[in-house]
Amino acid sequence: DVGDGDSLRVRMDGVSEEVRLIGINAPELDECWGLEARTDLDRVLGRRVTVELDEVERDQYGRLLAWVWDGGDLVNASLAAHGSALKYEVPPNTAHARAIRDAEEAARRDGVGMWSPSSCGDDVAAGLTIVRVDADPPGPDEDHLDGESVTIANRGTLPIDLSGFVLRDASTVHRFSFPTGVVLDPGTEVSVVTGCGADTAATLHWCSTAPVWNNGGDRALLLAPAGSIVAHFEYGP
Prior knowledge:
The chain is mostly beta strands. It has 3 helices and 18 strands.
Protein backbone atom coordinates (compact mmCIF):
# COMPACT_ATOMS: atom_id res chain seq x y z
CA ASP A 1 0.00 0.00 0.00
CA VAL A 2 1.56 3.30 -1.15
CA GLY A 3 1.15 6.37 1.06
CA ASP A 4 3.00 8.97 -0.98
CA GLY A 5 6.10 9.15 -3.15
CA ASP A 6 8.53 7.97 -0.49
CA SER A 7 6.51 5.79 1.89
CA LEU A 8 4.63 2.51 1.71
CA ARG A 9 3.20 -0.19 3.92
CA VAL A 10 4.40 -3.79 3.67
CA ARG A 11 3.50 -7.04 5.41
CA MET A 12 6.42 -9.04 6.74
CA ASP A 13 5.90 -12.27 8.66
CA GLY A 14 2.26 -11.31 9.15
CA VAL A 15 3.11 -7.89 10.61
CA SER A 16 2.18 -4.66 8.82
CA GLU A 17 5.00 -2.11 8.78
CA GLU A 18 5.17 1.42 7.42
CA VAL A 19 8.38 1.95 5.46
CA ARG A 20 10.09 5.27 4.71
CA LEU A 21 12.39 5.04 1.70
CA ILE A 22 15.98 6.00 2.53
CA GLY A 23 17.98 8.50 0.53
CA ILE A 24 15.15 10.37 -1.18
CA ASN A 25 12.52 12.99 -0.45
CA ALA A 26 9.41 13.07 -2.63
CA PRO A 27 7.01 16.03 -2.77
CA GLU A 28 4.01 16.01 -0.47
CA LEU A 29 0.73 15.04 -2.11
CA ASP A 30 -0.48 18.66 -2.24
CA GLU A 31 2.76 19.90 -3.79
CA CYS A 32 4.01 20.03 -7.35
CA TRP A 33 4.56 16.46 -8.61
CA GLY A 34 3.32 14.93 -5.35
CA LEU A 35 0.51 12.88 -6.90
CA GLU A 36 2.72 11.88 -9.82
CA ALA A 37 5.40 10.68 -7.39
CA ARG A 38 2.90 8.50 -5.52
CA THR A 39 1.67 7.06 -8.83
CA ASP A 40 5.25 6.38 -9.88
CA LEU A 41 6.03 4.51 -6.66
CA ASP A 42 2.87 2.42 -7.02
CA ARG A 43 3.83 1.64 -10.62
CA VAL A 44 7.40 0.47 -9.93
CA LEU A 45 6.51 -1.74 -6.96
CA GLY A 46 5.71 -5.40 -7.38
CA ARG A 47 3.62 -7.47 -5.00
CA ARG A 48 6.75 -8.86 -3.34
CA VAL A 49 9.73 -6.68 -2.46
CA THR A 50 12.95 -6.99 -0.47
CA VAL A 51 13.41 -4.58 2.41
CA GLU A 52 17.04 -3.77 3.23
CA LEU A 53 17.74 -1.91 6.46
CA ASP A 54 20.72 0.35 7.16
CA GLU A 55 22.53 1.54 10.31
CA VAL A 56 19.52 3.35 11.82
CA GLU A 57 16.47 1.11 11.45
CA ARG A 58 13.59 3.44 12.46
CA ASP A 59 12.80 7.14 12.39
CA GLN A 60 11.20 9.26 15.11
CA TYR A 61 7.74 8.12 13.96
CA GLY A 62 8.55 4.44 14.31
CA ARG A 63 8.69 3.81 10.55
CA LEU A 64 11.21 1.37 9.13
CA LEU A 65 13.94 3.17 7.20
CA ALA A 66 14.78 1.02 4.21
CA TRP A 67 16.21 0.50 0.79
CA VAL A 68 13.50 -1.35 -1.12
CA TRP A 69 14.31 -3.74 -3.94
CA ASP A 70 11.92 -5.03 -6.57
CA GLY A 71 13.91 -7.89 -8.04
CA GLY A 72 17.25 -6.33 -9.00
CA ASP A 73 15.91 -2.78 -9.14
CA LEU A 74 16.48 -0.36 -6.27
CA VAL A 75 13.12 1.38 -5.96
CA ASN A 76 14.61 4.39 -4.15
CA ALA A 77 16.93 5.04 -7.10
CA SER A 78 14.18 4.44 -9.65
CA LEU A 79 12.13 7.29 -8.18
CA ALA A 80 15.12 9.64 -8.33
CA ALA A 81 15.82 8.53 -11.91
CA HIS A 82 12.24 9.31 -12.93
CA GLY A 83 12.39 12.78 -11.40
CA SER A 84 9.81 11.79 -8.78
CA ALA A 85 12.05 12.42 -5.75
CA LEU A 86 15.10 14.42 -4.73
CA LYS A 87 18.14 12.86 -3.12
CA TYR A 88 18.21 13.35 0.64
CA GLU A 89 21.20 11.87 2.44
CA VAL A 90 20.98 11.44 6.20
CA PRO A 91 24.09 9.70 7.59
CA PRO A 92 24.73 7.02 8.60
CA ASN A 93 22.06 5.52 6.30
CA THR A 94 24.03 5.98 3.08
CA ALA A 95 24.64 2.43 1.81
CA HIS A 96 23.33 3.23 -1.68
CA ALA A 97 23.74 7.00 -1.68
CA ARG A 98 25.90 6.93 -4.81
CA ALA A 99 23.13 5.23 -6.81
CA ILE A 100 20.67 7.94 -5.73
CA ARG A 101 23.09 10.74 -6.66
CA ASP A 102 23.72 9.27 -10.10
CA ALA A 103 20.00 8.72 -10.71
CA GLU A 104 19.07 12.28 -9.77
CA GLU A 105 21.90 13.75 -11.82
CA ALA A 106 20.62 11.91 -14.90
CA ALA A 107 17.03 13.05 -14.27
CA ARG A 108 18.13 16.64 -13.84
CA ARG A 109 20.28 16.51 -16.97
CA ASP A 110 17.45 15.03 -19.04
CA GLY A 111 14.75 17.29 -17.57
CA VAL A 112 12.39 14.49 -16.57
CA GLY A 113 9.68 14.45 -13.91
CA MET A 114 9.85 17.40 -11.55
CA TRP A 115 12.98 18.60 -13.36
CA SER A 116 10.98 19.37 -16.50
CA PRO A 117 10.54 23.14 -17.06
CA SER A 118 6.82 22.52 -17.57
CA SER A 119 6.36 19.99 -14.74
CA CYS A 120 3.77 22.09 -12.92
CA GLY A 121 2.80 24.82 -15.33
CA ASP A 122 4.50 27.35 -17.57
CA ASP A 123 5.54 29.75 -14.84
CA VAL A 124 9.26 28.90 -14.89
CA ALA A 125 11.35 32.08 -15.15
CA ALA A 126 14.34 31.65 -17.45
CA GLY A 127 17.53 33.23 -16.18
CA LEU A 128 17.04 32.80 -12.45
CA THR A 129 19.95 31.12 -10.70
CA ILE A 130 21.17 30.64 -7.13
CA VAL A 131 24.73 31.92 -7.16
CA ARG A 132 25.79 31.55 -3.54
CA VAL A 133 24.84 30.13 -0.14
CA ASP A 134 26.61 31.63 2.87
CA ALA A 135 25.87 28.97 5.45
CA ASP A 136 28.54 29.34 8.13
CA PRO A 137 29.15 32.88 9.39
CA PRO A 138 31.90 33.41 11.99
CA GLY A 139 30.96 32.52 15.54
CA PRO A 140 27.94 30.59 16.82
CA ASP A 141 25.32 30.39 14.06
CA GLU A 142 22.47 31.27 16.42
CA ASP A 143 24.16 34.59 17.22
CA HIS A 144 24.81 35.57 13.60
CA LEU A 145 21.64 34.88 11.65
CA ASP A 146 22.28 38.08 9.69
CA GLY A 147 25.43 36.45 8.29
CA GLU A 148 23.61 33.43 6.83
CA SER A 149 22.09 34.03 3.39
CA VAL A 150 21.25 32.78 -0.11
CA THR A 151 21.88 34.98 -3.14
CA ILE A 152 19.72 34.72 -6.27
CA ALA A 153 20.55 36.38 -9.59
CA ASN A 154 18.61 37.20 -12.76
CA ARG A 155 20.89 36.26 -15.65
CA GLY A 156 18.09 36.70 -18.18
CA THR A 157 17.06 39.67 -20.27
CA LEU A 158 13.68 40.48 -18.70
CA PRO A 159 12.57 41.56 -15.20
CA ILE A 160 11.20 38.65 -13.13
CA ASP A 161 8.45 39.04 -10.57
CA LEU A 162 9.39 36.83 -7.60
CA SER A 163 6.02 37.21 -5.86
CA GLY A 164 4.97 33.79 -4.58
CA PHE A 165 8.28 32.07 -5.33
CA VAL A 166 9.58 29.79 -2.56
CA LEU A 167 13.13 29.20 -1.32
CA ARG A 168 13.58 25.96 0.65
CA ASP A 169 16.24 23.64 1.98
CA ALA A 170 16.79 19.93 1.27
CA SER A 171 14.63 18.81 4.18
CA THR A 172 11.66 20.92 3.00
CA VAL A 173 11.17 21.96 6.65
CA HIS A 174 12.48 25.48 6.05
CA ARG A 175 10.59 27.56 3.46
CA PHE A 176 10.70 31.24 2.62
CA SER A 177 7.95 32.77 0.45
CA PHE A 178 8.88 35.87 -1.50
CA PRO A 179 6.54 38.77 -0.70
CA THR A 180 4.34 40.40 -3.28
CA GLY A 181 6.01 43.04 -5.41
CA VAL A 182 9.61 41.77 -5.38
CA VAL A 183 10.93 42.19 -8.93
CA LEU A 184 14.45 41.19 -9.94
CA ASP A 185 15.77 43.18 -12.89
CA PRO A 186 18.18 41.67 -15.44
CA GLY A 187 21.75 41.60 -14.17
CA THR A 188 20.78 42.15 -10.53
CA GLU A 189 20.86 39.98 -7.41
CA VAL A 190 18.84 39.65 -4.23
CA SER A 191 19.99 38.00 -1.00
CA VAL A 192 17.65 36.27 1.45
CA VAL A 193 19.10 36.68 4.93
CA THR A 194 18.09 34.20 7.63
CA GLY A 195 17.72 36.83 10.36
CA CYS A 196 15.40 39.82 10.74
CA GLY A 197 15.88 43.32 9.39
CA ALA A 198 14.59 45.97 7.04
CA ASP A 199 14.05 44.69 3.51
CA THR A 200 15.60 46.51 0.55
CA ALA A 201 15.69 45.88 -3.19
CA ALA A 202 18.88 43.84 -2.71
CA THR A 203 18.19 42.17 0.65
CA LEU A 204 15.17 40.30 2.01
CA HIS A 205 14.88 38.84 5.51
CA TRP A 206 13.58 35.38 6.40
CA CYS A 207 13.22 36.42 10.06
CA SER A 208 13.87 32.86 11.22
CA THR A 209 14.61 32.38 14.90
CA ALA A 210 17.17 29.64 14.18
CA PRO A 211 19.74 28.83 11.49
CA VAL A 212 18.35 27.42 8.24
CA TRP A 213 21.33 26.17 6.26
CA ASN A 214 23.45 23.25 7.50
CA ASN A 215 27.13 24.09 7.80
CA GLY A 216 28.21 20.62 6.70
CA GLY A 217 26.21 20.59 3.48
CA ASP A 218 22.73 21.33 2.21
CA ARG A 219 20.75 22.24 -0.88
CA ALA A 220 18.87 25.42 -1.73
CA LEU A 221 15.92 25.06 -4.09
CA LEU A 222 14.03 27.91 -5.73
CA LEU A 223 10.46 27.03 -6.69
CA ALA A 224 8.09 28.94 -8.96
CA PRO A 225 4.61 29.68 -7.56
CA ALA A 226 3.14 26.51 -9.08
CA GLY A 227 5.98 24.44 -7.57
CA SER A 228 8.32 23.89 -10.53
CA ILE A 229 12.03 23.77 -9.66
CA VAL A 230 13.55 26.94 -11.13
CA ALA A 231 17.06 26.72 -9.68
CA HIS A 232 19.08 24.72 -7.18
CA PHE A 233 22.42 25.10 -5.46
CA GLU A 234 24.21 22.35 -3.57
CA TYR A 235 27.19 22.68 -1.28
CA GLY A 236 29.15 20.49 1.12
CA PRO A 237 30.91 17.13 0.88
